[in-house]
Specification:
Blueprint (H helix, E strand, L loop, with lengths): L13 H14 L5 E2 L11 H12 L12 H15 L8 E4 L2 H12 L5 E6 L5 H7 L3 E6 L6 E2 L2 E2 H4 L5 E7 L11 H11 L5 E5 L20 H5 L1 E6 L12 E4 L2 H14 L5 H13 L1 H26 L11 E5 L6 H12 L1 E2 L1 E2 L8 E5 L4 H15 L2
Parallel strand pairs: 1-12, 3-4, 3-7, 7-8, 8-9
Antiparallel strand pairs: 2-10, 5-6, 9-10, 11-14, 13-14
Helix pairs in contact: 2-10, 3-10, 4-5, 4-9, 11-13
Length: 385
């Protein structure tokens, strides 16, 4: 028996695979510090937990409409309106079974075999695989070259061909933690406003931005971009609801309708109990989200930045999300580095190869201050002589 050709080169998610390896070592009694997964170390706010229990006890356990229950859809529309300053309605949004599905549906709805999708590197691990599962061809471009020009044309624009169907944007970024600056957004606006290209904007970390940085959605820049942008968000990161598997999508009514049709055939509807909990999150957890954001920022400023400043090592300056992405010595194999680090120091990190950036490593600071301090000491013991 043979499997489909589309699966022959499919690999498991590197972050989930390493996270599972670290957890297996912990279960076996090893004192591993696991800084691999992008998972908040907080529990969901109490209002969310209460809503979860009440939903189960009061029979909120039935199917909802495919795109999500009506009361939640309105709250999701309101959530996006705060970012876009735009009068969205429930017709502009849908709810999915997690942020990963929310990233996949726009690709599945728009990509034909052979279509090209531009992906900025470093990228979240699953983007290329998702494009390939849809029959598309990933085309990579280094984010650090976004402002670079050749013959008065941006290098990014030179990648665009008649096969280019979409570009995937991710700000705040996983794994590098950068946030699109006004200059970045101006370049993207100049390049894509008049192009017949979908913009799939993963903004799952929009509520986790630090210092003077500000998240601005590309869809808010002008009406042309708004019409062809699909925005991804969800409950996992900001609300510490990773296991609830609730994602949000915003877009024009036509593309939302098409994705809702796909969802009706593939998953039916998102979990009804999780939808009730997500509605409580959007209604009642604003203060708790801000407290979690402040905690991440405190860790960044008091533990992460001082360590890397003292080390003298090269890294992306984190501006949002909860990752630091740092560079190894030239010629170092990042996968071997992480394997040796786990074996010798019992510290689990993710090699940059998984993000399209060989020679780099990602560390998640969604962990307690004690774990971070001990983890960085282990990293120092192994890496900094």
């Amino acid at each position: 028996m043979q499997i489909a050709d589309r699966l022959k080169n499919l690999k498991p998610s590197a972050t989930m695979e390493l996270d599972a390896q670290a957890k297996a070592m912990v279960a076996a009694g090893e004192a591993v510090i696991n800084l691999t997964a992008g998972e908040p170390d907080f529990s969901p706010p109490e209002s969310i937990l209460l809503a979860t229990c009440q939903a189960a006890l009061t029979g909120k356990t039935k199917y909802t409409q495919a795109k999500g229950q009506a009361s939640l859809l309105q709250k999701v529309a309101d959530f996006f309106n705060l970012q876009l300053d735009y009068g969205s309605s429930a017709k502009n949004v849908m709810v999915t079974s997690g942020g990963k599905v929310a990233c996949f549906w726009p690709l599945f709805a728009t990509i034909n075999p052979g279509d090209e999708v531009i992906i900025l590197t470093p990228y979240w691990t699953s983007y290329p695989a998702m494009v390939e599962l849809c029959g598309g061809v990933p085309v990579f471009f280094d984010y650090k070259k976004l402002s670079a020009k050749d013959s008065n044309q941006y290098l990014l624009e030179k990648l665009i061909t008649d096969k280019t169907k979409a570009i995937i944007l991710n700000s705040p970024n996983n794994p590098a933690g950068y946030v699109f600056s006004p200059q970045d957004l101006a370049i993207l606006e100049e390049i894509f406003t008049d192009k017949n290209i979908w913009l799939i904007s993963d903004e799952i970390y929009a509520n986790l931005v630090y210092g003077s940085n500000r998240h601005v959605s590309i869809a808010s820049l002008n009406d042309q971009l708004k019409e062809k942008t699909v925005i991804i968000n969800g409950a996992s990161k900001a609300f510490a609801m990773t296991g609830y598997r609730i994602g949000f999508i915003w877009g024009n009514q036509w593309i939302i309708g098409k994705m809702a049709q796909i969802q009706s055939q593939v998953i039916g509807c998102p979990c009804s109990i999780s939808q009730v909990a997500a509605e409580a999150a959007l209604k009642k957890a604003k203060l708790e989200v801000e407290e979690m954001r402040k905690s991440y920022e405190h860790r960044l400023n008091t533990i992460i930045r001082p360590f890397f400043k003292q080390s003298g090592k090269k890294y992306f300056q984190p501006e949002g999300a909860f990752y630091v992405f740092f560079k190894l010595a030239e010629g170092t194999d990042c996968t071997i580095f992480c394997q040796d680090l786990l074996k010798k120091e019992k510290l689990a990190l993710v090699p940059g190869q998984a993000f399209g950036y060989p020679g780099w490593v990602r560390l998640s600071y969604a962990a307690s201050e004690q774990q971070l301090s001990e983890g960085l000491q282990r990293l120092k013991n192994f890496w900094i002589k």
